[in-house]
Amino acid sequence: MEPYGNSGCVSSSASSSSSSSITKPPEMDNHLAEAGYKVRSSDLRHVAQRLEHLENVMVNSPNDLSQFASDAVLYNPADLASWVDSLLSASDFSTQLPISIPSDLDYPDAIMDQTAPPNDAWTDHHSAAAPPQHHHHQITAFTAMEEDSGIRLVQLLVTCAESVQRGDLALAGSLIENMQALLTRVNTGCGIGKVAGCFIDALSRRVFTPQSVGSAAGSAHENELLYHYFYEACPYLKFAHFTANQAILEAFQGHDCVHVIDFNLMHGLQWPALIQALALRPGGPPLLRLTGIGPPSPDGRDSLREIGLRLADLARSVNVRFAFRGVAASRLEDVKPWMLQVSPKEAVAVNSIMQLHRLLGSDSNRSAPMEMMLGWIRNLNPKIVTVVEQEADHNKAGFLERFTEALYYYSNMFDSLDACAALQPDKALAEMYIQREICNVVCCEGSARVERHEPLAKWRTRLGQAGFRPLHLGSNAFKQASMLLTLFSAEGYRVEENEGCLTLGWHSRPLIAASAWQVMPSPEATATATATATNNPLGIINRNANHV
Amino acid sequence: MADSDEVNLSESKTVVPLNTWVLISNFKLSYNLLRRPDGTFNRHLAEFLDRKVPANVRPVDGVFSFDVIIDQGTSLLTRIYQPASAEVPQPNILDLEKPVGNEVLPVIIFFHGGSFAHSSSNSGIYDILCRRLVNICKAVVVSVNYRRAPEHRFPCAYDDGWTALQWVNCRSWLKSRKDSKVHIYLAGDSSGGNIVHNVALRAVESGIDVMGNILLNPMFGGQDRTDSEKLLDGKYFVTIQDRDWYWRAFLPEGEDRDHPACNPFGPRGKSLEDIKFPKSLVVVAGLDLVQDWQLAYAEGLEKAGKDVKLLFLKKATIGFYLLPNNDHFYTVMDEISNFVSSDC
């Protein structure tokens, strides 16, 4: 007997409505997929039964469900089967939750001024406060514009990019001159004027002074400085560090010797918070080794070591045994695993904040540097690999498409920066950081173009094929990231959950994506990306089971 | 309430397709976790759970979309959906806000449901519904990301709807060539249906012409407990208790459910007899526990001499229009299409 209505159980063969490049395996229920939920058609009956069971448990629970929801850590609501099961397993509603990850970790002053408040009423009220006044903020800076000049600028920009793609540099050149003239009539301090100014500048370099493009990139020292201003002026890097640290902390639970490999140390901004969190962890801190990779210092200084010394001082002050090693390399692909001196006894975390995309070439067939790197990362057998990348499609071969994508992406980024009301000159320096990225995307080709951003969907496929499976970031990381935003940024920023990953964006446009990965056991090393999604059905239980 | 004898009241599973049952049950149980007894709402967890989708300028299934902030002060976002034209298969930024240029172009301002507290214009379930409306009605759809309860109570959602109506009315690129005006329809489901009514009311004195209202399972209520509420409480995904919670979260503090926002034809309702009100299409699901209020709404419009078409779907539950896997879905989409094209 059919306990469920049997009309319309058959999935339609309608094409996917998502813009993801991963095609769903045929057995997923198409209608639910369109709504954002992944369930295999063959699992529907089972999921329905579990939902009924869950309802019974909830109805019979003596406790307040909303309290349970506030305390529990929940993962990946898109995967309905595992979602329901994790709710069930997490919820022996009448007893204390077995999940050991507290939702109110103390984070140091560098990131948060106070411990997370114990209930949500604070944040709920906070979000009802009036948003600060700000000017010219739109998801697409080019729409709903009242000024004709602004519209004209956009038309010219796109036409110019088209002519560059066609190779008509004479036309491109004269369009650039038109645009520069038009810029004088537009407010270049904000909104479309600001963004257009950057892109006109980049086009101008590409067309008129291609030889100067290399020097526009600036020295490593300058870049580090600008990075620092970008870090301060908006929440993207703080979110990246915070979210990665949270995942690393959880992965390191129960381990006494831990080793973090940072693919781009910069000023080591990410690490004080982790050191302090490890200092405070129940049972005491582990021995922490940090290997920081960075460009060689030109003037004989060893800037990596200097940063290591400062971090060591901090670690000493909070009684964390700490060892630092700097690895100087001009390019990430020059780093070899033997330089990292990983010991088999330690739990390893590999941390890549906006670095992996540099290994991509525009020809996806020549993926050797990326494959090699992912291969040796895998061989290190890390407990966790944290990856943060720009959520953008800036690696297309066609120039016009790349240009247009970048125009959208960076206009949102600039708008979001405006909302943060950083003081000058800090804001201008942060913007310069972004401008350099734009310049690389627009002006450079071949090995000079390192800003080859690709969207999360592509990273999922790539990492899956390289033998990694996702470690889902949960509702606690989401909540803390949201709360971090209310402290450090402005109205308009949004954290979103995306199948176990977290994104931070401006309004509804995600701009940066954070994800965590672990190595898949060998026999499944060649599994496809879709298998990775279902290999980790109970996010909570799997983590606890990974202890050595 | 209408005709209840044949319906097996304890078996919600027998009346909806399996995947619909899974979808709506999941919402029901997840939403139970979000509402707190003290009237506050776990907004973080709600946002974590909500499946969101980005806008897409590259057309998919003949529709492209983009987001626009239409009011800086409240950060009011709308997602605009347009049919991809045959001549411009890949619109770029310049094509957004280019005059669509149709002789007659219906523009549907859509208010998503969620009982005033849940969902957003970029929620997957509503994004896909809006895309379907574009293709079925050959319309532009403007989905309004209105402020939600309990953080923002009455009248915030209505204010946002009104802002959106005024904004849409002023867009020269949305005008129909025939009369150089924007042909506006208001549509919404659940709380969105309630917003439709209230925004249309506000438009009455303003001189903005709303050509029609489409209310899908609109959210109305009142202090009384009606027969349908008593009979269907808890049977088809919805309980009186949760309905009460959402009204308490939306209405001004201290107010009861006879507040005119909740009960427009109740003891505190205002008469529509002397005002010009748009024609209405009211869709009522026969297994929705608030159907008596919805039927009373349709009746109230009729008694006031307003043009109203009631579509009563006896075996439909809430959310039947979210997945295109049942006859009711197609019936309703046809009706909406006719409703919107009958003014050409």
How would you describe what is shown here?
Chain A: Pfam families: DELLA, GRAS. Chain A: Residues 1-28, 116-137 are annotated as: Disordered. The complex is a heterodimer of chains A (548) and B (344). Chain A has helices at 30-34, 44-60, 65-71, 80-90, 121-127, 148-166, 169-183, 191-208, 213-216, 220-233, 236-251, 271-279, 303-317, 368-379, 399-419, 426-443, 456-465, 475-488, 529-534, 539-545; strands at 257-262, 287-294, 322-328, 347-353, 384-390, 468-471, 493-498, 501-506, 509-519. In chain A, α6 (148-166) runs parallel beside α8. With 548 residues, chain A is α/β, with parallel strands linked by helices. The longest helix of chain A has 21 residues, at 399-419. In chain A, strands 1, 2, 3, 4, 5, 6, 7, 8 and 9 form a nine-stranded mixed beta sheet that branches. Chain B has helices at 18-34, 43-49, 124-137, 156-170, 191-204, 227-232, 240-250, 291-303, 327-341; strands at 63-71, 76-83, 106-111, 140-144, 183-189, 210-216, 279-285, 308-313. In chain B, strands 1-2-4-3-5-6-7-8 form an eight-stranded mixed beta sheet, with helices on both faces. Chain B contains nine helices and eight strands. By secondary structure, chain B is an alpha/beta fold. The radius of gyration of chain B is 19 Å and the shape is globular. In chain B, α4 crosses α5 (191-204).
